[in-house]
Structure formats: C-alpha cells, structure tokens
Description:
The chain is mainly alpha-helical.
Amino acid sequence: xxxxxxxxxxxxxxxxxxxxxxxxxxxxxxxxxxxxxxxxxxxxxxxxxxxxxxxxxxxxxxxxxxxxxxxxxxxxxxxxxxxxxxxxxxxxxxxxxxxxxxxxxxxxxxxxxxxxxxxxxxxxxxxxxxxxxxxxxxxxxxxxxxxxxxxxxxxxxxxxxxxxxxxxxxxxxxxxxxxxxxxxxxxxxxxxxxxxxxxxxxxxxxxxxxxxxxxxxxxxxxxxxxxxxxxxxxxxxxxxxxxxxxxxxxxxxxxxxxxxxxxxxxxxxxxxxxxxxxxxxxxxxxxxxxxxxxxxxxxxxxxxxxxxxxxxxxxxxxxxxxxxxxxxxxxxxxxxxxxxxxxxxxxxxxxxxxx
Length: 355
C-alpha cells in the first residue's frame, strides 16, 4: 500500500501575513478537489485536477506525490515512479516518496531498486514499521532470510500488536527450519488475530517438523473446518497420519486431496505408497501409473511401480520400469535392488487380481 498525504491549510494568526479576504491559491484549490475525488474512488477524474494543480504550480510537491498515488492505484507504475521521483528531486528527504516509489518498483519486479528505496526511507523514517515489513518481504522473496528476520523483528518492536508481522517472521523461521520459533510466532499471530487461518495451517507444518504430530493434527482439523476444500491441507494431514502409522486415515486424506485436485502428483504418489503397504498392489500400480502420465520423468514413480509389479509376480513389466527408473535417476541403483529383493521374498505365488 502507498502512504497517502493530505493538505492542511493553516490560518496565519498575524494580520501582517494574512491574505486578503476571499483570496485562495488556485493550485491548492485544484489539489483539494483532486483529493476529494480520489477519496471517493473517482481516480481518473482526480487525475484531471492533479494535472491542473501542476499546470498552475510546476513545483507543487504534494500534487506530484498524490498524482503518483493515483497512478499507482490505477496500476500505472511507471508514471507513479516518475511522479515520486519528482517529489524526491524537489524534496530529497521525503521518506514517503521513497517508500511509495519502492512499492511501485516492487510491483514491476525491480526488487533491487525497491530495496534501495526502502532502505533510504528507513534512514529518513526509522520508526515506520511498515517500511521494515516491506523491505523484509523483499529480502524474503530473494531468499535472504537473515536480513528479512532482522527487519520483521524491528517491525515487531515498533508495532507489537500486528499479527501479520508475527506471521511473516514465523514464515521466515520456517524457511530457516527453526520450527520451534516458528510455532511461537504463529501462536502469537493467532492470539492477536484468531481469524488468521493460514497461521494455523503453517503452524501445523511446523509442529510436524518438530514431530509433535497430535498438535499438527489439531491445527489441520481446525484449518479444514474453515477451508474444507484445500487439497494441500488434506495431503499434509495425510502425511502426519502416515507418520503415525495410521494408513487408513492417511489414505482417506490423500484420496480427498486427489478428489479436489485430480492432478495432485504428491497425493497420488503417497496414496500409492499406502496401498502398497496395505497389500493393495493393483491400486498402488494405478496411482503410480497416473503419476507417470502427469510426470513422465518421475523416476520414483517408475521405481515404486516396479516394486509393486514384483509383489504381483509381474516380473517382465517390472523389468521395464526398473530400466526406465535407472535411466532417469542412476542413484536409485544404490537403494532399489534391496526393495526388489524384499518384494521377491514376500510376494505370493499368485498375482493379485484387480479389486
């Protein structure tokens, strides 16, 4: 978001400098009309008045600034940047202009320029939490998690009741695999804003990372009560059930994820693993086949289908899958033979018929 500016007309107390009755500055009048229109959402009409104000006064900093805001609101980021740059030329210590220009650069994907502007804005206004948040977001998007963490922490110091900032810092902790710190920040975010359901979802992932599976399940359950059509949540809850050895629950969640997103490769693959563990080899093979259709270079799917075919006694089909798996990923030659030997030792004499 941009920082808006408004004009306050101050009445002079000394008659010596007070203008004559009825006098007004036409440029300021035009600007005030523009601001009224802008506030009412009539942005294009406001632009006409901003243009008038600048024709009347070419050095009118506030008119450039607010016209820049109008261009930004219309998605005309290059024009917004031009106006903010003019503000900076006329008023080099204007932190708001640096901040808003940084936002426009960010929209254009020019993250390095956005970083420069946010940093300059912070130099000029070091107590503005919002600038730290936006700079932290840029660092986060660049994978620079240490400076992102530093910025979010400073923003929290300045704005300790902002749930979103705790959420952002928690996400950064997650990227650094500091799951315990992440759960603490997600919990604070939820205390400040119980409706921040994504914090509950991410906290579930963090709990799973800590192997606190029951807590993870509780969070997934609450998240899914709020967002029951999230295939990702069903898939992740399925992973937790699988980690707990609850294969039937895991299979149900993977199946729901596939129902909601039939192209969910991870859910199909993991459901295949569950079917294999339960001895439902034909169903497992069907899932691995679907993964291969969606992802033809998925070496693990070929490998697992090969193992499944061995269990079924379909050695010739398994041989073709093994060859393809090794072509796609030669490192499988280190682990797959042991799985094949195990399958051969455990399989029944009669191949499983399709259920």
